[in-house]
Write a structure and sequence with these properties.
Shape: globular
Strand order of the largest sheet: 4-1-3-2-5
Number of helices: 2
Radius of gyration: 12 Å
Largest sheet: 5 strands, mixed
CATH architecture of one domain: 2-Layer Sandwich
Order of helices and strands: EHEEHEE
Structural class: alpha+beta
Strand content: 35-45%
């Protein structure tokens, strides 16, 4: 299992970003969570099989829906999983 902590910058709040992220996570069998931050970014904690996580991150970097405009993504990865059992919106 692989783990990623992601901060997404851009037009990512008020455009269905969290819901779309949850749908993408479901497609790639990713567990974790997504939440809005007070500074206008979206924060994601995600874990799953390495290839699935890579595909998930790629989809997020390109914007999970046509209304979002991702400008920059900060990603830190780790091989230690957090033990999430599902993907949820916080």
């Amino acid at each position: 299992m692989a783990f990623a902590h992601i901060i997404v910058h851009g037009r990512v709040q008020g455009v269905g970003f969290r819901f779309s992220t949850q749908q993408v996570a479901s497609q790639y069998d990713i567990n974790g969570w997504v939440k809005n931050n007070p500074d206008g970014t979206v924060e994601i904690e995600a874990e799953g099989k390495k290839q699935d996580l890579d595909d998930f991150v790629n989809k997020i970097q390109n914007g999970p829906n046509p209304y979002a405009k991702v400008e920059h993504v900060d990603i830190s990865t780790d091989n230690n999983e957090k033990g999430h059992s599902k993907f949820k919106i916080i």
